[in-house]
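Justification of computing resources. Each target in the renewal requires a structure prediction run like the one illustrated here; the chain below, 176 residues long, is used simply to show the kind of job we budget for.
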Amino acid sequence: MKIRNFLLIAGLFPVVAGCSSLGLDSDPSYSDKQKEQMYKYGSVASDEGGINLFGGDDKKEAETGGIGVNGFLWRATLDTISFMPIASADPFGGVILTDWYSQPDSPAERTKLNIFIRGRDLRADGIKVSIFRQTKDASGNWVDATVAAATSGSLENAILTKARQIRMAQKQAAAQ
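Resulting structure tokens:
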């Protein structure tokens, strides 16, 4: 059975490879503009970009930079927490998880962030920050500590402010 599958695949390989020599690029029925559009969008279905499976538009794509969440919030978040080690970052799901971070002047305390970017729009409720804090007890074990309720809101506001600054800078650069 394995040998038959191998022979089938090996037999199809020259056929598939030979398709590139059919000369479709030199087909006179396509104008240069049509060929350019096919290569640009990877589709012959339409001059305006082919079939869009995910329902996005070019304006949203430009604003988000091709990721699944708002690009301004994404960049602002990474800029704001750049001093912390990133454990995981998913630009399509909008999740950034940091590793534990201790400031050099207080090694007995550490902080971790879970940041969720909730959508493609730059809105005040578009980001959620969860902060975790631990301190060392007398025996050297890490123990969970409380975090002031306003701390996550302050970090969210700092990220939103930075996102607005990035958006304004990009609009000014585009206007020039």
